[in-house]
Amino acid sequence: MGEVIARAGSCTLDVRNEGTHFDALIRSIVYQQLSGKAAATIHGRVVSLIGEGGSPVPQTILSTTHEALRAVGLSNQKASYVRNLAQHVIDGSLPIESLHNLTDEEIIHALVQVKGIGRWSAQVFMMFRLGRPDVLPELDLGIQKGIQKAYRMRKLPTPKQVLARGKKWAPYRTVGAWYMWRILDVE
Fold first, then answer.
1. What pLDDT score was predicted for residue 185?
2. Residue 99: what are its φ and ψ, rounded to 5°?
């Protein structure tokens, strides 16, 4: 890891704490599997459509038609995911306002109940929204490739091998994960 840090430089991991947890999860859904520029454009349109005072709120999402969400660029699936998130918040099955008070595993359990939010999305939320210091998204292909490159492995490590390697980084696995993403950009 020392060599990786020397090559990649100081950690500049940023926590996004503007807006609400709900905003962050909407953004996460919109950005899934899209390039940054396309995702930013669609996200801006979604916020313009459903934002009240600059932030989307669950009630507004549910009162917005599926077709209107599609018209601003959301795929059929993502429109249903955004609505599912809003429904979970409104019915109280997702304690959105107190997620930061839960343990990492409790957060993952709560978030994966929402269609369109899996373990990886929950982990990224914990890292970049909540600033949790000890999160390692073992299913992330970039982290797997980073470990393969950094530790000169012939094969891509399995999620189990990622977790085993990451044990040495505890209690700062979030920083270790950040470095595995960065090392892919360093020659």
1. 87
2. -55, -40
**68 lies in the same domain as 110:** yes
Which are the catalytic amino acids?
Answer: 140
pTM of the model: 0.87
164: its two tokens: 């085993």
Q: Chain centroid to CA 142: how far?
A: 14
Tokens linked to 85: 């998130």
List of the chain residues with pLDDT < 50: none
Do residues 45 and 73 lie in contact, with contact meaning Cβ atoms separated by under 8 Å? yes
Q: What is the pLDDT of residue 19?
A: 85
Percent of the chain with pLDDT over 90: 74
118 & 142 share domain: no
Cβ-based burial of 80 (10 A; exposed 0-12, middle 13-18, buried ≥19)? middle
* Angle 59-130-32 from CA coordinates, rounded to 5°: 65
The boundaries of the domain holding residue 140 are 2-13+136-183
